[in-house]
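REQUEST FORM: STRUCTURE PREDICTION
Request ID: SP-0412
Submitted by: Lab K.M.
Chain count: 1
Length (residues): 388
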Amino acid sequence: MKTYDWIVVGGGITGAVLAYELATKGLRVLIIEKDTRLSGATPYSYGGIGYLFGTSELTRLLCQEGIKCHRQLSAELEADTQFRELDLIMTIPADEDPHKAVTNYAQFTITPKLISVKDACDLEPLLNPDAIAGALIIPHAHIHPGYTTQAYHQAFLRAGGEFAIGKVMELLQKRNSIQGVKTINQTYYAANTVICAGGLSRALLKASAISIPLYFTHAEMIETPPVNLKLRTTVMTANSQRFQLEKQATTPEFDPLWDEPENELVPPILDPGAIQFLDGSLRMGQISRIITNPYAKIDPVASENAIRQEVGKVLPALENIPGTWHHCLVAFSNNGLPIVNAINNVAGGYIFSGFTNPWVLVPPLAKRFANWVTGEEDNIITQLSSTN
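STATUS: Completed
RESULT:
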């Protein structure tokens, strides 16, 4: 019976980065991913690296570590992540006060610069000047989610890591310890197991009677094939509603409702935005829904029409281009910070999930986590453990 040092449940970006860092420590690591082709949030991500979005001493430090990592990541992984530094334009709706929008971002590492409608359209000619009252601009960075995750997978394998395909049904528990996992067809054993299953992490832990303040949204976006038009910047709305949605859905009165099926706790929101990759393909969206059933059915036609309509107001050229609607789960916590922790009162069990800003926070925290579990003290991991 083969036993690993670590089993990493989930092969998306969170699990891939963490498994790679653990493997480079000389540990025997197995990634278990439910699909041969990634189907969670990772393949449908924008790949944005919001390294100036830190709002506290803790997150600012991690953001700076994250962007430093990405700037040399292609060389480290020996593969092109398509890293780029480019402007993020956050559009302000035509009926809103531009100066008020600035105050909503005063807590960032740097306050975004307010620019006029003309300046915004000069930077991004695809913008509709009649739909905005101005825009905020901030330095930003971007990678290709698929290429970056694949690069981590390959580096993980070169470091001696192993992959298995299978849907994890439950954790293998004996008394107060986790000794591995059970998939539909097989049981795998390890001294330590870490859950990196994104939006499905909550259901997996619940199946093993483990309660963690981890939640999920149903996120929806449209992916297009390569197109001829050119989007020069990343475009998002300055009036983002996603974080307010997450905060509202994790208030104490809603918490018991998360364990009841089919609850839609708050109305869905739509934050229009778009990004174009180097091959010319686009991703635009997104709708976020709080439905407690991770397998809930959503009307793709109505959702796609809603995304196209809202994105089309700001970027008219994108409204009718061919594309495919996608739906995935996005994990989040109840305090805006990721959950990076040992599972309380369960030996050998860990959680590494709930990343609201994954592309900038996952690399530095994975490195710190790997150092921490191999004996190094880390006050950042300690801080995150104490907040959950």
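NOTES: The domain at 84-142+215-333 is CATH 3.30.9.10 (D-Amino Acid Oxidase; Chain A, domain 2).
Reviewed by: T.R.
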